[in-house]
Amino acid sequence: MDIVSIAEDILNKAIKKNSDSAEAYIIEESSTIIEVKEQKVDSFQSAASRGFALRILLGNKLGFSYTSDNSPPAIDRLIKEAFENAENNESDVYISFAKPSQRASVKSLYDDKLKGVGEKEKIEMGIRLERAALKYDKRIKKIRHASYEDSENKKVFLNSNGIKSFYSDTVCSTSIMLVAEENGNSEIGWEFDYNRFYKNLKVEDVGIEAAEKAIKMLGAKRINTCRIPVILDPKVSCDFLGILSSSLSADSVQKGKSMLADKLNSIIASPIINLIDDGTLDGGIGSAPVDGEGTPTRRTVLVEKGYLRGFLHNIYTANKWKTSSTGNSVRGGFKGLPGVGVTNLFVEKGNITREGLINGIDKGLYITEAMGVHTANPISGDFSIGIAGHYIENGKISFPVRGVVVSGNILELLKDIEAVADDLRFFGRIGSPSIKISEVVISGN
Protein backbone atom coordinates (compact mmCIF):
# COMPACT_ATOMS: atom_id res chain seq x y z
CA MET A 1 0.00 0.00 0.00
CA ASP A 2 1.41 3.44 -0.93
CA ILE A 3 1.79 6.08 1.77
CA VAL A 4 -1.11 8.21 0.51
CA SER A 5 -3.44 5.22 0.84
CA ILE A 6 -2.04 4.46 4.31
CA ALA A 7 -2.66 8.06 5.38
CA GLU A 8 -6.23 7.91 4.09
CA ASP A 9 -6.80 4.66 5.96
CA ILE A 10 -5.49 6.11 9.25
CA LEU A 11 -7.55 9.28 8.86
CA ASN A 12 -10.78 7.45 7.99
CA LYS A 13 -10.42 5.09 10.96
CA ALA A 14 -9.79 8.00 13.33
CA ILE A 15 -12.84 9.86 12.01
CA LYS A 16 -15.06 6.77 12.32
CA LYS A 17 -14.03 6.46 15.95
CA ASN A 18 -15.75 9.80 16.53
CA SER A 19 -12.85 12.21 16.87
CA ASP A 20 -13.90 15.85 16.46
CA SER A 21 -10.89 16.43 14.21
CA ALA A 22 -8.12 14.19 12.92
CA GLU A 23 -4.83 14.64 11.12
CA ALA A 24 -2.51 12.05 9.56
CA TYR A 25 1.14 12.80 8.73
CA ILE A 26 3.48 10.35 7.01
CA ILE A 27 7.10 10.77 5.99
CA GLU A 28 9.13 8.30 3.91
CA GLU A 29 12.89 8.86 3.80
CA SER A 30 15.88 7.32 2.03
CA SER A 31 19.49 8.46 2.29
CA THR A 32 23.06 7.70 1.26
CA ILE A 33 26.18 8.79 3.15
CA ILE A 34 29.65 8.11 1.70
CA GLU A 35 32.94 8.93 3.47
CA VAL A 36 36.18 8.85 1.50
CA LYS A 37 39.70 8.60 2.90
CA GLU A 38 42.95 8.34 0.95
CA GLN A 39 41.03 8.05 -2.31
CA LYS A 40 39.08 5.02 -1.11
CA VAL A 41 35.66 4.46 0.43
CA ASP A 42 35.99 4.68 4.21
CA SER A 43 32.30 4.13 4.94
CA PHE A 44 29.10 3.68 2.99
CA GLN A 45 25.67 3.96 4.59
CA SER A 46 22.31 3.57 2.91
CA ALA A 47 19.09 3.74 4.86
CA ALA A 48 15.34 3.95 4.37
CA SER A 49 12.53 4.53 6.83
CA ARG A 50 8.85 5.42 7.15
CA GLY A 51 6.96 7.02 10.00
CA PHE A 52 3.28 7.53 10.68
CA ALA A 53 1.84 10.16 13.03
CA LEU A 54 -1.71 10.90 14.12
CA ARG A 55 -3.19 13.88 15.94
CA ILE A 56 -6.84 13.90 17.01
CA LEU A 57 -9.06 16.31 18.92
CA LEU A 58 -11.77 15.31 21.38
CA GLY A 59 -13.36 18.68 22.01
CA ASN A 60 -10.31 20.78 22.82
CA LYS A 61 -8.21 17.87 24.06
CA LEU A 62 -5.28 16.85 21.86
CA GLY A 63 -4.20 13.27 21.38
CA PHE A 64 -0.97 12.34 19.59
CA SER A 65 0.71 9.05 18.71
CA TYR A 66 3.17 7.67 16.17
CA THR A 67 4.60 4.43 14.83
CA SER A 68 7.04 3.15 12.22
CA ASP A 69 4.96 0.01 11.63
CA ASN A 70 2.04 0.14 9.17
CA SER A 71 0.69 -3.37 9.85
CA PRO A 72 -3.06 -3.40 10.67
CA PRO A 73 -2.47 -4.17 14.39
CA ALA A 74 0.08 -1.33 14.63
CA ILE A 75 -2.29 1.15 12.97
CA ASP A 76 -5.05 0.08 15.37
CA ARG A 77 -2.69 0.72 18.31
CA LEU A 78 -1.71 4.10 16.83
CA ILE A 79 -5.35 5.20 16.79
CA LYS A 80 -6.13 3.71 20.21
CA GLU A 81 -3.16 5.50 21.83
CA ALA A 82 -4.09 8.85 20.25
CA PHE A 83 -7.59 8.61 21.75
CA GLU A 84 -6.25 7.55 25.15
CA ASN A 85 -3.80 10.46 25.18
CA ALA A 86 -6.57 12.90 24.27
CA GLU A 87 -8.81 11.62 27.06
CA ASN A 88 -5.99 12.13 29.58
CA ASN A 89 -4.95 15.59 28.35
CA GLU A 90 -6.19 18.95 29.56
CA SER A 91 -8.46 21.02 27.34
CA ASP A 92 -6.79 23.82 25.36
CA VAL A 93 -9.02 26.20 23.40
CA TYR A 94 -6.16 27.37 21.16
CA ILE A 95 -5.58 24.00 19.49
CA SER A 96 -7.09 23.54 16.02
CA PHE A 97 -6.15 21.99 12.69
CA ALA A 98 -5.51 23.63 9.32
CA LYS A 99 -8.34 24.43 6.94
CA PRO A 100 -8.13 24.18 3.14
CA SER A 101 -6.53 27.05 1.25
CA GLN A 102 -4.51 27.40 -1.95
CA ARG A 103 -1.13 25.66 -1.77
CA ALA A 104 1.97 27.73 -2.27
CA SER A 105 3.74 27.37 -5.60
CA VAL A 106 7.26 26.16 -4.87
CA LYS A 107 9.81 25.25 -7.53
CA SER A 108 13.01 23.22 -7.62
CA LEU A 109 12.43 20.80 -4.76
CA TYR A 110 12.79 17.40 -6.41
CA ASP A 111 15.50 15.92 -8.63
CA ASP A 112 13.88 13.09 -10.56
CA LYS A 113 17.27 12.15 -12.03
CA LEU A 114 18.88 11.37 -8.66
CA LYS A 115 17.55 7.79 -8.74
CA GLY A 116 19.57 7.22 -11.90
CA VAL A 117 22.90 8.11 -10.26
CA GLY A 118 24.79 4.94 -9.38
CA GLU A 119 26.88 4.19 -6.29
CA LYS A 120 30.12 4.32 -8.26
CA GLU A 121 29.42 7.86 -9.45
CA LYS A 122 28.54 9.00 -5.93
CA ILE A 123 31.76 7.52 -4.55
CA GLU A 124 33.68 9.33 -7.27
CA MET A 125 32.23 12.61 -5.99
CA GLY A 126 33.99 12.08 -2.65
CA ILE A 127 37.22 11.02 -4.35
CA ARG A 128 37.23 14.11 -6.57
CA LEU A 129 36.61 16.31 -3.56
CA GLU A 130 39.57 14.90 -1.62
CA ARG A 131 41.82 15.00 -4.67
CA ALA A 132 41.07 18.67 -5.38
CA ALA A 133 41.94 19.66 -1.82
CA LEU A 134 45.21 17.74 -1.74
CA LYS A 135 46.33 19.08 -5.13
CA TYR A 136 45.73 22.70 -4.10
CA ASP A 137 48.85 23.06 -1.93
CA LYS A 138 51.51 20.73 -0.51
CA ARG A 139 50.84 22.20 2.94
CA ILE A 140 47.52 20.35 3.04
CA LYS A 141 48.65 17.40 5.12
CA LYS A 142 45.52 15.65 6.28
CA ILE A 143 41.92 15.16 5.20
CA ARG A 144 39.79 14.63 8.29
CA HIS A 145 36.75 13.80 6.25
CA ALA A 146 35.48 14.10 2.70
CA SER A 147 31.88 13.12 2.18
CA TYR A 148 28.96 12.94 -0.21
CA GLU A 149 25.35 12.66 1.01
CA ASP A 150 21.92 12.65 -0.53
CA SER A 151 18.39 12.15 0.70
CA GLU A 152 14.90 11.82 -0.73
CA ASN A 153 11.80 12.60 1.33
CA LYS A 154 8.15 12.00 0.58
CA LYS A 155 5.56 13.64 2.83
CA VAL A 156 1.81 13.13 3.06
CA PHE A 157 -0.47 15.35 5.09
CA LEU A 158 -4.24 14.80 5.43
CA ASN A 159 -6.83 16.10 7.87
CA SER A 160 -10.57 15.90 8.44
CA ASN A 161 -11.02 19.55 7.41
CA GLY A 162 -10.19 18.58 3.83
CA ILE A 163 -6.45 19.20 3.70
CA LYS A 164 -4.71 16.77 1.34
CA SER A 165 -1.06 17.34 0.49
CA PHE A 166 1.64 15.12 -0.97
CA TYR A 167 5.08 16.29 -2.11
CA SER A 168 8.64 15.02 -2.52
CA ASP A 169 12.00 16.69 -2.16
CA THR A 170 15.66 15.82 -2.56
CA VAL A 171 18.89 17.22 -1.13
CA CYS A 172 22.46 16.43 -2.20
CA SER A 173 25.54 17.67 -0.37
CA THR A 174 29.28 17.38 -0.20
CA SER A 175 31.63 18.54 2.57
CA ILE A 176 35.27 18.38 3.59
CA MET A 177 37.40 19.15 6.63
CA LEU A 178 41.18 19.24 6.30
CA VAL A 179 44.37 20.32 8.03
CA ALA A 180 47.13 22.58 6.69
CA GLU A 181 50.57 22.58 8.37
CA GLU A 182 53.62 24.83 8.14
CA ASN A 183 56.53 25.52 10.51
CA GLY A 184 54.85 23.67 13.35
CA ASN A 185 51.58 25.54 12.92
CA SER A 186 48.38 23.90 11.83
CA GLU A 187 44.97 25.21 10.75
CA ILE A 188 41.69 23.54 9.91
CA GLY A 189 39.75 24.33 6.75
CA TRP A 190 36.11 23.40 6.20
CA GLU A 191 33.73 23.89 3.30
CA PHE A 192 30.55 22.39 1.91
CA ASP A 193 27.94 22.71 -0.78
CA TYR A 194 24.37 21.46 -1.03
CA ASN A 195 21.70 21.60 -3.67
CA ARG A 196 18.32 20.12 -4.43
CA PHE A 197 19.79 18.85 -7.71
CA TYR A 198 22.73 16.46 -8.03
CA LYS A 199 24.10 17.99 -11.23
CA ASN A 200 24.39 21.42 -9.59
CA LEU A 201 26.68 20.27 -6.77
CA LYS A 202 30.12 21.86 -6.65
CA VAL A 203 32.84 19.33 -5.91
CA GLU A 204 36.31 20.53 -6.86
CA ASP A 205 35.39 24.08 -5.80
CA VAL A 206 34.52 22.86 -2.30
CA GLY A 207 37.88 21.09 -1.92
CA ILE A 208 39.82 24.09 -3.20
CA GLU A 209 37.97 26.59 -1.02
CA ALA A 210 38.50 24.50 2.13
CA ALA A 211 42.20 24.22 1.37
CA GLU A 212 42.47 27.93 0.64
CA LYS A 213 40.81 28.83 3.96
CA ALA A 214 43.25 26.67 5.93
CA ILE A 215 46.32 27.97 4.07
CA LYS A 216 45.32 31.60 4.56
CA MET A 217 45.05 31.11 8.33
CA LEU A 218 48.56 29.68 8.76
CA GLY A 219 50.68 31.90 10.98
CA ALA A 220 47.66 33.50 12.65
CA LYS A 221 48.44 35.75 15.62
CA ARG A 222 46.74 37.83 18.25
CA ILE A 223 46.25 41.58 17.99
CA ASN A 224 46.11 44.24 20.67
CA THR A 225 42.79 45.17 22.24
CA CYS A 226 41.13 47.74 20.01
CA ARG A 227 37.87 49.26 18.83
CA ILE A 228 37.60 48.79 15.07
CA PRO A 229 35.09 48.16 12.27
CA VAL A 230 34.54 44.51 11.36
CA ILE A 231 33.12 42.53 8.48
CA LEU A 232 31.21 39.37 9.32
CA ASP A 233 31.59 36.54 6.83
CA PRO A 234 28.18 35.11 5.77
CA LYS A 235 28.75 32.03 7.98
CA VAL A 236 29.39 34.20 11.04
CA SER A 237 26.37 36.40 10.28
CA CYS A 238 24.26 33.24 10.04
CA ASP A 239 25.54 32.07 13.42
CA PHE A 240 24.19 35.26 15.00
CA LEU A 241 20.93 35.01 13.05
CA GLY A 242 20.53 31.51 14.44
CA ILE A 243 20.39 32.99 17.96
CA LEU A 244 18.01 35.75 16.86
CA SER A 245 15.73 33.28 15.06
CA SER A 246 14.34 31.83 18.28
CA SER A 247 13.26 35.33 19.35
CA LEU A 248 11.33 35.73 16.09
CA SER A 249 9.06 32.82 17.05
CA ALA A 250 5.68 33.88 18.44
CA ASP A 251 5.93 30.85 20.72
CA SER A 252 9.08 32.29 22.35
CA VAL A 253 7.39 35.67 22.74
CA GLN A 254 4.29 34.14 24.32
CA LYS A 255 6.46 32.20 26.76
CA GLY A 256 8.53 35.26 27.72
CA LYS A 257 11.69 33.87 26.13
CA SER A 258 12.29 36.41 23.36
CA MET A 259 14.59 39.42 23.30
CA LEU A 260 12.07 41.01 20.90
CA ALA A 261 8.96 40.56 23.06
CA ASP A 262 8.09 44.26 23.44
CA LYS A 263 9.63 45.58 20.25
CA LEU A 264 6.97 45.09 17.54
CA ASN A 265 7.02 48.06 15.13
CA SER A 266 10.09 49.43 16.89
CA ILE A 267 13.55 49.92 15.39
CA ILE A 268 15.71 46.87 16.18
CA ALA A 269 18.28 47.11 13.39
CA SER A 270 20.01 49.44 10.97
CA PRO A 271 17.66 51.02 8.40
CA ILE A 272 19.46 49.09 5.63
CA ILE A 273 18.38 45.74 7.09
CA ASN A 274 15.48 43.70 5.71
CA LEU A 275 15.03 40.27 7.29
CA ILE A 276 12.75 37.80 5.54
CA ASP A 277 11.48 34.27 6.09
CA ASP A 278 10.37 32.65 2.83
CA GLY A 279 9.05 29.10 2.67
CA THR A 280 8.43 29.44 -1.06
CA LEU A 281 12.04 30.30 -1.99
CA ASP A 282 13.07 28.54 -5.19
CA GLY A 283 15.29 25.59 -4.21
CA GLY A 284 15.50 26.63 -0.55
CA ILE A 285 16.42 23.90 1.91
CA GLY A 286 13.42 24.89 4.04
CA SER A 287 11.00 25.37 1.16
CA ALA A 288 7.79 23.33 0.86
CA PRO A 289 4.27 23.88 -0.47
CA VAL A 290 2.83 23.45 3.04
CA ASP A 291 4.24 23.58 6.57
CA GLY A 292 4.08 20.92 9.29
CA GLU A 293 0.35 21.46 9.82
CA GLY A 294 -0.73 21.71 6.19
CA THR A 295 -0.82 25.52 6.08
CA PRO A 296 0.58 26.97 2.83
CA THR A 297 4.06 28.43 3.25
CA ARG A 298 4.67 32.05 2.36
CA ARG A 299 7.08 34.98 2.35
CA THR A 300 7.02 36.90 5.64
CA VAL A 301 8.84 40.21 6.13
CA LEU A 302 10.06 40.23 9.74
CA VAL A 303 12.29 43.28 9.72
CA GLU A 304 11.68 46.08 7.23
CA LYS A 305 14.22 48.91 7.00
CA GLY A 306 15.23 48.19 10.58
CA TYR A 307 11.69 47.98 12.00
CA LEU A 308 10.40 44.74 13.53
CA ARG A 309 7.20 44.02 11.59
CA GLY A 310 6.10 40.61 12.81
CA PHE A 311 6.73 37.17 14.28
CA LEU A 312 6.54 33.62 12.97
CA HIS A 313 3.39 31.65 13.76
CA ASN A 314 1.92 28.20 13.61
CA ILE A 315 -1.82 27.68 14.11
CA TYR A 316 -1.61 27.47 17.91
CA THR A 317 0.33 30.72 18.44
CA ALA A 318 -1.81 32.47 15.82
CA ASN A 319 -5.00 31.41 17.62
CA LYS A 320 -3.64 32.88 20.86
CA TRP A 321 -3.21 36.29 19.24
CA LYS A 322 -6.30 36.02 17.01
CA THR A 323 -4.21 36.24 13.85
CA SER A 324 -3.23 33.85 11.03
CA SER A 325 -0.46 31.28 10.81
CA THR A 326 2.52 32.42 8.74
CA GLY A 327 3.10 28.85 7.55
CA ASN A 328 5.95 28.30 10.00
CA SER A 329 4.89 25.10 11.71
CA VAL A 330 7.87 22.76 11.75
CA ARG A 331 8.25 19.11 12.70
CA GLY A 332 11.55 17.50 13.60
CA GLY A 333 10.13 14.25 12.24
CA PHE A 334 7.07 12.08 12.64
CA LYS A 335 7.78 11.57 16.36
CA GLY A 336 7.29 15.22 17.32
CA LEU A 337 4.40 17.64 17.62
CA PRO A 338 4.40 20.75 15.39
CA GLY A 339 6.38 23.69 16.75
CA VAL A 340 7.33 27.10 15.34
CA GLY A 341 10.50 27.60 13.32
CA VAL A 342 12.09 29.26 10.32
CA THR A 343 11.79 28.04 6.73
CA ASN A 344 14.41 30.05 4.83
CA LEU A 345 15.41 33.01 7.01
CA PHE A 346 17.74 35.53 5.42
CA VAL A 347 19.04 39.09 5.37
CA GLU A 348 18.24 40.67 2.04
CA LYS A 349 21.44 41.26 0.06
CA GLY A 350 22.88 44.70 -0.70
CA ASN A 351 24.53 46.05 -3.83
CA ILE A 352 28.21 46.17 -2.88
CA THR A 353 30.76 43.37 -3.19
CA ARG A 354 32.60 41.87 -0.24
CA GLU A 355 35.78 43.33 -1.70
CA GLY A 356 34.08 46.70 -1.74
CA LEU A 357 33.41 46.41 1.99
CA ILE A 358 37.07 45.54 2.64
CA ASN A 359 38.36 48.35 0.42
CA GLY A 360 36.46 50.89 2.50
CA ILE A 361 38.24 50.02 5.75
CA ASP A 362 41.55 51.57 6.88
CA LYS A 363 42.05 49.30 9.90
CA GLY A 364 39.61 46.53 10.75
CA LEU A 365 38.95 42.81 10.98
CA TYR A 366 37.28 40.39 8.57
CA ILE A 367 35.80 37.74 10.88
CA THR A 368 35.59 34.28 9.29
CA GLU A 369 35.10 32.13 12.40
CA ALA A 370 33.08 32.60 15.58
CA MET A 371 33.48 30.03 18.32
CA GLY A 372 30.70 29.52 20.83
CA VAL A 373 27.96 31.71 19.38
CA HIS A 374 25.48 29.17 20.79
CA THR A 375 26.46 30.39 24.28
CA ALA A 376 24.90 33.81 23.61
CA ASN A 377 21.99 34.60 25.90
CA PRO A 378 18.86 34.08 23.76
CA ILE A 379 16.76 36.44 25.88
CA SER A 380 19.13 39.36 26.57
CA GLY A 381 21.21 38.92 23.40
CA ASP A 382 24.50 39.31 25.27
CA PHE A 383 27.51 37.38 23.96
CA SER A 384 31.24 36.95 24.46
CA ILE A 385 32.89 34.66 21.93
CA GLY A 386 36.22 33.72 20.44
CA ILE A 387 36.81 34.79 16.86
CA ALA A 388 39.32 34.37 14.05
CA GLY A 389 39.79 36.03 10.70
CA HIS A 390 42.02 38.44 8.83
CA TYR A 391 43.27 41.88 9.78
CA ILE A 392 42.52 44.64 7.27
CA GLU A 393 44.96 47.48 6.60
CA ASN A 394 44.54 50.21 4.00
CA GLY A 395 41.62 48.42 2.37
CA LYS A 396 43.43 45.09 1.96
CA ILE A 397 43.71 41.79 3.82
CA SER A 398 46.96 41.93 5.79
CA PHE A 399 47.48 38.89 8.05
CA PRO A 400 45.48 36.12 9.80
CA VAL A 401 44.22 36.64 13.35
CA ARG A 402 43.31 34.10 16.04
CA GLY A 403 42.97 34.01 19.82
CA VAL A 404 40.91 37.17 20.28
CA VAL A 405 37.46 37.77 21.74
CA VAL A 406 34.53 39.98 20.84
CA SER A 407 31.75 40.82 23.30
CA GLY A 408 28.52 42.72 22.88
CA ASN A 409 24.81 42.43 22.33
CA ILE A 410 23.09 41.05 19.24
CA LEU A 411 20.52 43.86 19.04
CA GLU A 412 23.23 46.52 19.36
CA LEU A 413 25.18 44.69 16.65
CA LEU A 414 22.14 44.87 14.35
CA LYS A 415 21.80 48.62 14.87
CA ASP A 416 25.50 49.17 14.14
CA ILE A 417 25.35 47.54 10.69
CA GLU A 418 26.83 50.00 8.21
CA ALA A 419 26.75 48.05 4.94
CA VAL A 420 25.49 44.78 3.46
CA ALA A 421 27.24 43.00 0.59
CA ASP A 422 25.71 41.17 -2.38
CA ASP A 423 27.13 37.70 -1.55
CA LEU A 424 24.05 36.14 0.07
CA ARG A 425 24.73 32.53 1.05
CA PHE A 426 22.62 30.02 2.93
CA PHE A 427 23.87 27.67 5.62
CA GLY A 428 20.94 25.31 5.93
CA ARG A 429 17.76 27.28 6.61
CA ILE A 430 19.54 30.56 7.42
CA GLY A 431 21.23 32.89 4.95
CA SER A 432 23.15 36.16 5.01
CA PRO A 433 25.55 38.23 2.93
CA SER A 434 28.78 39.65 4.36
CA ILE A 435 27.92 42.44 6.80
CA LYS A 436 29.97 45.44 7.92
CA ILE A 437 29.63 46.58 11.54
CA SER A 438 30.69 50.15 12.21
CA GLU A 439 32.71 49.38 15.34
CA VAL A 440 33.20 46.65 17.96
CA VAL A 441 35.65 46.07 20.79
CA ILE A 442 38.17 43.29 20.11
CA SER A 443 39.87 41.94 23.25
CA GLY A 444 43.37 40.73 22.47
CA ASN A 445 46.84 41.29 23.94
Layout of SSEs?
Layout lengths: L2 H14 L4 E17 L2 E19 L2 E7 L4 H17 L30 H18 L3 E20 L4 E19 L2 E11 L8 H14 L8 E7 L1 H14 L2 H5 L20 E4 L20 E6 L2 E2 L6 H6 L8 E2 L8 E2 L4 E3 L6 H6 L3 E9 L10 E12 L2 E14 H6 L1 E4 L4 E3 L2 E3 L2 E9 L2
Parallel strand pairs: 7-14, 13-19
Antiparallel strand pairs: 1-2, 1-4, 2-3, 4-5, 5-6, 7-20, 8-9, 8-13, 9-10, 11-12, 14-15, 15-16, 16-20, 17-20, 18-19
Helix pairs in contact: 3-4
Which short descriptors sum up this protein?
single chain; 445 residues; alpha+beta; PmbA/TldD fold; 2 domains; 6-stranded antiparallel β-sheet; 6-stranded mixed β-sheet; 9 helices; 20 strands; 39% strand
Description:
The model has no long low-confidence stretch (mean pLDDT 96). The protein is built from nine helices and 20 strands. The chain starts with a helix and ends with a strand. It folds into two domains: 3-214, 2-Layer Sandwich (PmbA/TldD fold); 220-445, no CATH class. It has 445 residues and is of the alpha+beta class. The strands form four sheets. The chain has a six-stranded antiparallel sheet. A hairpin with an 8-residue loop joins strand 11 (329-330) and strand 12.
H/E element string?
A: HEEEHHEEEHEHHEEEHEEEHEEEHEEEE
The amount of beta strand, in percent, is 35-45%
Give the mean pLDDT.
96
Judged by helices, strands and strand pairing, the structural class is alpha+beta
**What is the terminal-to-terminal distance?**
67 Å
Please give the order of strands in the largest beta sheet.
Answer: 3-2-1-4-5-6
- The percent of residues in helical segments reads 10-25%
The beta-strand count equals 20
Q: Outline, from the CA principal axes?
A: globular
Compute the number of structural domains: 2
